[in-house]
């Protein structure tokens, strides 16, 4: 046996991890599944989106379990871990994450799988509690109030002055987003921020020539 063979053997033996028993693997994967289910529930409670991707929400606990299984496999043998790194490097994910909060939940699920796979369930529990409390606090501590969109359909453009007069009396902030004239009808979209919503749309609807008034909320950026 040459010196190179001895060196390679000692290198592999030195980095060999502890034996992964079936009991340890089951406990680890069950913990990942439990934390993944917790992330699933937290996502639905914290985000409160009108429309959400059902497949993305379901994938969160699955990602946590798969990540935990990968970490367990990597611990078993350095040769397997190197092969797994090579196999995962050819995977390409084409799904774009548009909402930053979705990206945060995705990293949360991956982190839970890594931490539980390393046998540090207590850290995973502390991390989940801190993230949940932090998200609730930041959601309650609103940095700005979201504006709403006032959509008005009128019979002619001359009604704009009367509409803006009523809007000025109720809104501290307003901004005309669009004006549209078609088939002798006049449409306006105004970005507004106010508290007396019902009173505003009721008074505008009473203007002669106004056929419809709508006040729409949106999930976009807030106005400071």
Labels describing this entry:
224 residues; alpha+beta; Alpha-Beta Plaits; four-stranded antiparallel beta sheet
Description of the structure:
With 224 residues, the chain is an alpha+beta fold. The chain has two domains: 138 residues, no CATH class; 69 residues, Alpha-Beta Plaits, CATH 3.30.70. Helix content is 58%, strand content 15%. The protein has eight helices and four strands. A four-stranded antiparallel β-sheet has the order 2-3-1-4, covered by helices on one side. Strand 2 and strand 3 form a beta hairpin. Helix 3 runs antiparallel to helix 4 and helix 5 packs antiparallel against helix 6. The chain starts with a helix and ends in an 8-residue tail after the last strand.
Compact description:
The chain is α+β, with helices and mostly antiparallel strands. It has helices spanning 3-14, 22-47, 54-76, 78-88, 100-117, 121-140, 160-170, 197-205; strands at residues 148-154, 173-182, 185-193, 210-216.
Series of secondary-structure elements, N-terminal to C-terminal: HHHHHHEHEEHE
Please describe the biggest sheet, giving its number of strands, its sense, and whether it closes into a barrel: 4 strands, antiparallel
Which geometry do the CA atoms define?
elongated
Strand content: 5-15%
Report the strand count.
4
How many domains, in number, for the residues? 2
Number of helices: 8
User: Roughly how many Å is the radius of gyration?
Assistant: 28 Å
Question: Mean pLDDT, rounded to whole units?
Answer: 76
Helix content: 55-70%
Strand order of the largest sheet: 2-3-1-4
End-to-end separation: 73 Å
Structural class: alpha+beta
Can you tell me the residue ranges where pLDDT is under 50 for at least 5 consecutive residues?
10-17
